[in-house]
């Protein structure tokens, strides 16, 4: 069964970034009109900038792009504590022609091996550097010939310098806004209600964790949800101890409060609220639930809980056709 997945993905990088020249420190503000190359700080968790003097003619757009890319790849920062944002293993295999202020760069497969923080900072450094070229407003990435995708397996598409917001003096924080699908109970306690929820997350917190935390909070914390139609499925006081994904299986561990099933809902609703919500995530195909690190043979009124669960849409309420 095909996943509907996530919609409305908007990537936003909030990062502490500052200009740096021979007389500036990494915490000074960027000066308008000055050209920069973007690097990583010593901790490799923040972008910093150093002034750069271009040699290509200002009207040689393609030449400027090539010069900036070569500079990012080869020129060491003046500040010895800074590091190049583009690792040596990452190779730009092709630079597309600029059309309608759009530029596409192709990378080798090594790009896929970057960590979340490495990747977003590398991408930010390249995009912000290239968007200093007057005729370049939008930049997209291809990796092994395929569009670069985010952690939700959605194509990122064209990016602008404004997608990477400067917040001088703050911490680097990559945040994405996404609309996810959660499943709560209807008033009968025998059917699940599909509920779309907008959440914000960063690379430091797995999306699976945020989905489960929202389920634990219940629909009452979601703006615009009718609490007379949609009801919580997880007992109040339940705590998520751990969540991991391996080989398509999401392993979820709750504390013992999870076993105190809400009396007004069926076993199926309690279980598949978790299962169906998680399987909306592209990387998840099955869900295994444990309590305090242990498998639980019997749950609620006698349902097995010690098996991997697959999606069950048969208990999802069908919306009436208009």
UniProtKB/TrEMBL annotation:
Ordered alphabetically, the record's keywords are:
Signal
Matching SMART domains, A to Z? Germane (SM00909)
Please give the coiled-coil regions recorded for this protein.
none
Task: Tell whether Signal is among the UniProt keywords.
Answer: yes
Residue span, GerMN domain: 65-152, 208-300
**Superkingdom, according to UniProt?**
Bacteria
Look up the signal peptide feature and give its range.
1-23
Q: What InterPro entries would the database entry show? A: GerMN
This chain belongs to the protein called GerMN domain-containing protein
Q: What is the protein's species of origin?
A: Acetivibrio ethanolgignens
